[in-house]
Amino acid sequence: MLAMILAAIEGILGIGACVGAGIAVIGAGLGIGKIGASAMEAIARQPESAGDIRSNMIVIAALVEGVALFAVIVCILSLFL
């Protein structure tokens, strides 16, 4: 009986880790898309500062991607530990 309860708990934890990783990836995709759209709009408004805007966009997108990668790794670790 106890083994069945532990197996059910492990299954629920696995589903939770997968859902958490999925939410992290979807959030990062939406965030990077929003950053790209805002940067393109800013470049269209002021083309002379395109280099500065592009470099800032890349830095911010890398930070968002790093946070998403960290969230996915935490979800994977919670799945196996």
From TrEMBL:
Main location (coarse class): membrane
Residue numbers marked as site, Reversibly protonated during proton transport: 65
GO CC entries: plasma membrane; proton-transporting ATP synthase complex; proton-transporting two-sector ATPase complex, proton-transporting domain
Keywords in alphabetical order: ATP synthesis, Cell membrane, CF(0), Hydrogen ion transport, Ion transport, Lipid-binding, Membrane, Transmembrane, Transmembrane helix, Transport
Lipid bilayer topology: Multi-pass membrane protein
Subcellular location as annotated: Cell membrane; Membrane
Domain V-ATPase proteolipid subunit C-like: 15-77
Molecular-function annotations in GO: lipid binding; proton-transporting ATP synthase activity, rotational mechanism
Stored Pfam families: ATP-synt_C
UniProt entry tagged with the keyword Signal: no
This protein's record includes keyword Cell membrane: yes
Transmembrane segments: 12-37, 58-80
HAMAP family, sorted: ATP_synth_c_bact
Protein task: Key component of the F(0) channel; it plays a direct role in translocation across the membrane. A homomeric c-ring of between 10-14 subunits forms the central stalk rotor element with the F(1) delta and epsilon subunits. F(1)F(0) ATP synthase produces ATP from ADP in the presence of a proton or sodium gradient. F-type ATPases consist of two structural domains, F(1) containing the extramembraneous catalytic core and F(0) containing the membrane proton channel, linked together by a central stalk and a peripheral stalk. During catalysis, ATP synthesis in the catalytic domain of F(1) is coupled via a rotary mechanism of the central stalk subunits to proton translocation.
Similarity annotation: Belongs to the ATPase C chain family.
The protein, known as: ATP synthase subunit c
Species of provenance: Paramuribaculum intestinale
